[in-house]
Each structure stands twice: as structure tokens, then as C-alpha cells.
Amino acid sequence: MLQVREVSHSYGNRNWLDRSGSRPVLENISLTMDKGSCYGLLGTSGAGKSTLGKIILGIEKPSKGEVWFEGKNLYHSSRKLLKEWRRDLQVVFQDCYSAVNPLMTAAQIIGEPLRNFERYSPKELQRRIGILLEQVGLRPEDERKYPHQFSGGQLQRVNIARAIALKPKLIVLDESVSSLDMVHQTQILSLLADLRTHYGLSYLFITHDIRAATAICDHIAVMDQGSLVYQGGDRESLIQCAHPAVKQLVSSILPEHPSERIVLN
């Protein structure tokens, strides 16, 4: 479904004291996602994960390389096809509050993509929004609430409802559970798994949290300083990987009983 082919990207240096030129953020990234899969993209802050996510979403054009979605090149397509992709590719960001307009109700937030791409009557639009709210574990009457009236976990559910409203083919989840406490993280991960089954969704799950990734992902890749340093689907091979960036992520896994904790040399 998705192919990233030798993507590289650089940002120009804005510091006039430093004449070293552009700064590489991604270097020769290649990966493939199958339809219906959940692909985990792990790495510490600054590894290049979010930049790659923006390139896949069509928000930022890479300096080099190609992104293919369902057999078509994202950055060499007609306006009509790009509009279709905006429908098929959705995103849920980490900060649920900055991702919404604080002056809009939940109904307006969720209904925005529906108004842009569909032609519902006011009554049908309200019915559809109510269904979406129920599917993410909220109540239809919550449609009248504003963002500040929701908890962080509840507002992230509103963001997820907006993301699934058009029944997209791929959702990029950019640190979408990182700002939540453990209880809400578990609830949102369970919700994402249920929605994936219900809608046949595919996820690109961007995170620094190896626990969350191993809980939901079929395949995991690790980025470090703009490069892919690990790809695999086996949790054991991830744990045994000798690359320092992978070992750093794995070291964050601490089972409750000390005797079961992983010791890394």
C-alpha cells in the first residue's frame, strides 16, 4: 500500500554564524507498509520520525526520493489525485489541544472533514457525528462540548473520531498517546486496535515508547539520527539488536519483577 523509496531530506541552516549549509534530517529511508498493517516507527526525539511522517502525509516534500501510495507517486500526481489522498491519509497528533480549534465544538471538529468531502444534510451530518462519538467511546450529547470541557484522553478520542470520519486508508499516529497517562494510553491503544479491525485501517504509529509500539504494531522500525537502524516484526529480535539506539529504547522496558528485567551491556 505504501512505499517510501530512498527518501532524504535536509533543512537549510538559519544561523548566520554557521556557514555549514543545510542540515540532513533523513538519509536514504526506504520502507514498505502492507494494507491493514500497523507499522511502528520508533526513535528518540530528533531522530527524524515526525519529519518522515509529514513527508508521507504530503505536508513536506522530500529533498530526494519518492513516496508511493497504492502504486502512485505522491509528489508527481494531479490535483485531483492529491485531493483523494487528503481523504485517504489522516493524522492524529500528540498534542490533542493544539490540534483543534478551541472555539469549535466537538461536532464542528469532527464534522469538518465530512463537510469538506461529503454532502450530508444537517440531520444526517448530526447522526453521523453521533455514531463517530459512540465509536470512540464518547456520548452523542458530547457533540456540544468545547475542547476545554474534555479531559486529555477524551479530547484525543475526538481527534481520532475526526481522523476516521472519512474512513481513510492510512492514519499517521504521531506520538498520539505519549502525552496521556498509563490508564488513558491503554484505553486509547485498545480503541485504536478495535477501530483498525472495524474499518480495516492501516496505521503508521510514530512513537518513542517501545511498550506502546510492541502492544499494537505488527512491524517495528527504529530511526536514529535520520537513518533506519532496525526493521523487524519479532519482539525478541528487537530486544537482541546490538545497535546503541535500539538498546537505549529497549532499556526503558522494565518488568514489574526485578528478576525479569533485561540487563543490557
TrEMBL record:
Domain of life: Bacteria
GO cellular component, one term: plasma membrane
UniProt-listed CDD domains: ABC_NikE_OppD_transporters
Keyword Nucleotide-binding: yes
Xref: InterPro entries: AAA+_ATPase, ABC_transp_ATP-bind, ABC_transporter-like_ATP-bd, ABC_transporter-like_CS, Nickel_NikE, P-loop_NTPase
SMART domains: AAA
Signal peptide: none
Record keywords, A-Z: ATP-binding, Ion transport, Nickel, Nickel transport, Nucleotide-binding, Transport
ABC transporter domain span: 2-250
Name of the molecule in the record: Peptide ABC transporter ATP-binding protein
Pfam annotation, one family: ABC_tran
A GO molecular function held by the record: ABC-type nickel transporter activity
Native organism: Paenibacillus albidus
Ion transport in keyword set: yes
